[in-house]
Amino acid sequence: MDKQKYITLILILGSLTALGPFSIDMYLPGFKAIALDLHTTVNKVSLSLSSYFIGISAGQLLYGPLLDRFGRKKPLYIGLAVYILASAGCAVTTNIDAFIALRFIQAVGSCAAAVASMAMVRDLFPVQDSPKVFSLLMLVVGLSPMLAPTIGGYVIAGFGWHTIFIILALMGFAVLMASRFGLPNTYKADPSISLKPKPIIANFITVLSHPQFYTYALSGAVAFSGLFTYVAGSPLVFMDIFKVSETGYGWIFAFMSVSFIGTSQLNSVLLKRYKSEQLVYIGLTLQCVISLAFLVAAINNWLGLYETIGMLFLYLGCLGLTNPNTAGLSLAPFSKNAGSASALLGAMQLGLGAIASMIVGIFVKESMVPMVVIMAGSTIIALLILLTGRRNIKVLAESSDGDSVVMH
């Protein structure tokens, strides 16, 4: 593959992956404006974030089998069309409940892009290159939380929050065109894959029962729920508790993204000397230490605005190190079922993210402590899952070696 084609593929796959983060991050500075305009509370508006996470999580499981059955492009086009229409609906709604429902539909559309991009990485690149490719996608994706809230803050200040969703609809159309003309057909339709519930469920169970998948997918998803906790809690923490302006919040959010992007790119360098398995363990261990220190400081009320920014910056840096490696390791055992494996991985990440964001919306009001409790708890659980699961992978590997000896 020549360099220009490689860069083009990374940019298009990155734009597919970035559509979801833009849809999440760009409207965050508008929570107060939306609440005022739709005659509701900021906490009720935050439920639109939870409904988005639920929609994108459920949609993952829908698109996985479709991508394996019909190829990558047709389901992708349908999903993007749904996304465009739902975004336009969000722009014109005048009711908070309708807004929350439209965000769910918008998410179901956008997750076609997320699942397709992950499956195409498995189609287009060798298994050993997957963590590196995912790191490059993190660079493209990482620009979205840098740019989206900052742009969103200025757009809302100048043109109102409705304009955000018009922009998102136009972005969806641009991504659709780029996919249509810039992506190859990476996977032929496989009529042998059934779309009946029983075979689909059996296929998901097969993927989920693989020790390497459930170890790295589940530990990565639980750890990554800390990011969704931060995304859901940050408007309340910074704008309600610390009284930061909409544009100021956008700049803080952008600064935080530097940490996630920086470590995801550092990961590409570290992979030349260390294995992905080692980096996941190092990243989760550091994340545990940082989140526990963050929790102690939050409980004792030692944190002002700048200290809070600093602790979150360090925490997010750990996620940038672990996430590309857990994704690559989770999908490595699969070729035929890459679409289903990608969907299951995304559903786990976003389902846990939905739960975390809903808890944040309920409990984070006058203190950041509930947010930090969720972040610390999820990290500790993720590390325990990793340590337990790695033993099962080792046993499976030793068993496979033993079988091969007997055969020979």
UniProtKB/TrEMBL annotation:
UniProt keyword Transport, yes or no: yes
One annotated GO biological process: xenobiotic detoxification by transmembrane export across the plasma membrane
Pfam entry (one): MFS_1
Membrane topology summary: Multi-pass membrane protein
One of the record's GO molecular function terms: sodium:proton antiporter activity
InterPro entries linked to this entry: Efflux_drug-R_Bcr/CmlA (IPR004812), MFS (IPR011701), MFS_dom (IPR020846), MFS_trans_sf (IPR036259)
Superkingdom of source: Bacteria
Location in or out of the cell: Cell membrane
Annotated Major facilitator superfamily (MFS) profile domain residues: 9-394
UniProt record similarity statement: Belongs to the major facilitator superfamily. Bcr/CmlA family.
Name of the protein described by the UniProt record: Multidrug transporter
